[in-house]
Design goal:
This protein is of the alpha/beta class. The protein is built from ten helices and eight strands. Helix 5 crosses helix 6.
Amino acid sequence: MTDYRKLIDAETWAFIEKTNSYYPPDTIDYTVPEQRAIYDRMCREFFAGYPHGVTAETTAIATPTNSIPIRIYRNAELDKAAMVLYAHGGGFILGGLDSHDDVCAELCARTGYEVVSVGYRLAPEHLHPAAFDDVLSAFEWASGTYDCPVLLCGDSAGGNLCAAVAHATRGHVKKPIGQVLIYPSLGGDRSRGSYVTHAEAPMLTARDTVFYLNIRTGGVDRTGDITLYPLADANFAYLPPTVLITAQCDPLSSDGEAYRDHVVAAGGHAYWFEEPGLVHGYLRARHTVGRARAGFTRIVDAVSALGKGDWIW
């Protein structure tokens, strides 16, 4: 058993305990509406507000089949080198424009880029590939609307969706300029690595990841579907420059390492950094935990650099 008392510092434990007080570890045993109510309340408790000078506009992208809610963040001093398309986490069943509202506002303020957050459809009401289709449609809308390049950024489930979109758009004239994937779920080997070492990690367990996968697919075996499992792709060439930032105490961490290795082996640019002593969901700890604050700065720096076409790693 991993000794988390040695790996995780006191600040991070305080964050874990605060999170658990709003979102207990057994929340996945509740109904989906109950889980959403619990998650939304937790997100409100951690909401940090908007930095000075950031404004947001909530609107929607009309597609032939559905309307996709988006929220557009703009900074008083706009950097037009790129724009960021953000896909939120939440296990494909939780979250939306409000759950990551302050994260997107801060990303906008600290990079200067316009940020568009995507309120993609959630399971189980909308099974795979609905969420993927929505983020792909949002990318196509952004690449056709903005004159500047589009950078993909997402955490957890959102990191999965960004990677899947990056794979799907390699042949496009206007493909993503880069992608920043924050503790993403990419469909790695569950029999090894962090899936075993950190199967019982605080904040996210291996059991949780299986639950989210099954509810997203409706229990259907979709082995080999690269829109669901980006790591199942046989070809990792021509992907945009990629930065993967994971948490050490997280069953998903090995996905970042595996994805980096595949991209580099195919001749591409990819960098993986595992945040020591941090846990899944640490974005919400960026104002209270020193390690998470440093991790968020790493994310901001990666978004800033890739948006300008710089590869500094």
